[in-house]
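[job 0412] stage=fold_complex status=start
inputs:
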Amino acid sequence: MTHSPRLSLGLAPSLIAALFALAGCGISAESGGRAYRGAMIAHAMPRPSFTLTDTHGRPFDFRAQTDDTVTLLFFGYLNCPDVCPVHLTNIATVMRGLPYDVTSKVRVVFVTTDPARDTPEKLQAWLANFDPSFIGLRGTPEQVTAIEKSVDVAPAVAAAPDSAGRYEVGHAAQVLAFTRDDSAHVVYPFGTRQADWAHDLPLLVKVK
Amino acid sequence: MTTVQWWCSARGIPWRWSWQAYPGVWLAVLALGATYARWSRPVANAASHAFTTSAARRAGGWIGVVLVWMALDWPGGPLGTGYLASVHAAQFLALAMVAPPLLLRGIDGDRIRALLDRNGVVAKIIVAVTTPLVAMLAFTIVMLSTHAPGVVDTLMRTQLGAFALDFAWFLSGLAFWWPVVIDVPLRERFGPPMRMLYLFAGTQAHLYLSMWLLLAEFPAYGIYELAPRVTGLSALEDQQVAGGLLLTLGGTYVLAVISVLFFRWFEEPQPEA
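[job 0412] stage=fold_complex status=done
writing structure:
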């Protein structure tokens, strides 16, 4: 998806406007009269029920503790070199610019697919780099795999370690957006831009 | 198996400070160097040597060749193509704004006169594309179109696309700077005042582009926004640095060239009344 940023300056001549408007033809999807820039799910997915452990060591009941919020659920890991930091950076950047009445209704929940390396302390510090409000959850690989399957996400797979013991974890790249009607209607694949999030988050908050 | 990267393109993989070969860049720079070496050499049997370029100008041209090489090869090439808009802006300044006039100043005037006097196809193309209005329009159109997000995000993902973009910058830069730097073909009405006006008008698009990059609410280019970060700067901050570079370095550079043209013109002996 490509989108031109909104101009804050009205000085650009029409030629520039015309050229740069060419980039604004992003993919959008309709749901209940709303046009989302994320990818629509054919059949709405119910908000899952599961309990994992947060970065403070406390149990986190996903369904109960994210009730009546727009919840962006994402599976990834701290050593991820590309997808995870880009997604989280883009969401955090956009959240900083949105009004409080929107951001107060949004929760970002990150479930680690690499619990062996992502200790609670590391996960907490890493997520706080993006936004201190982001919630990090840990569970056993079996628990996480079960949750991934329950939300139609491909289970993460760890690659074989190299000679230095480093390894990468293949994981799903999409962010699932559960709205306040306890369903996910839209997912956001890798490639979702900040302009897309800024467009969609206020719309998602309105779904009730 | 690793495939050869002939030209830098956006690959979306994490940046590593490990050297990588770009044979296509080397070939292009070698071709440029060979062409420049031939065209900067004074003509042995020129009638007057009136247009022979100076050693300093010839040396300046070699700086232009090195600039092109640095802009295209590792690390500047891949960084600007796939990771940092700020490096991309620096590449543009090098390829379209600084290297072309340096190279053109180093070319031997007698050789160009001889080429144009032959009035062949190449001469006709050169005369046509270096006509000031044509060159200015072409430069502006290339500059704007090659900075449109859709164009950048599409071209930079492939080696051929990235090559086309770099080549378009360099060629349009040569055409744009030719009427300012080279006096052949002789255009009597295109004196110093017109050249100053030409430079000012021809670089106005930079101002709008740089302001757009500086003031945009979100990152303009997907390849930079979605690329793994290289520096501590966010994609938007990096884009603002790009806009700042175009505005400050580019603007100052153009102003400096206009100033040089003005003072040279000012010091020229005026024809007696």
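[job 0412] summary: Residues 83-97 of chain A form the longest helix (15 residues).
[job 0412] exit 0
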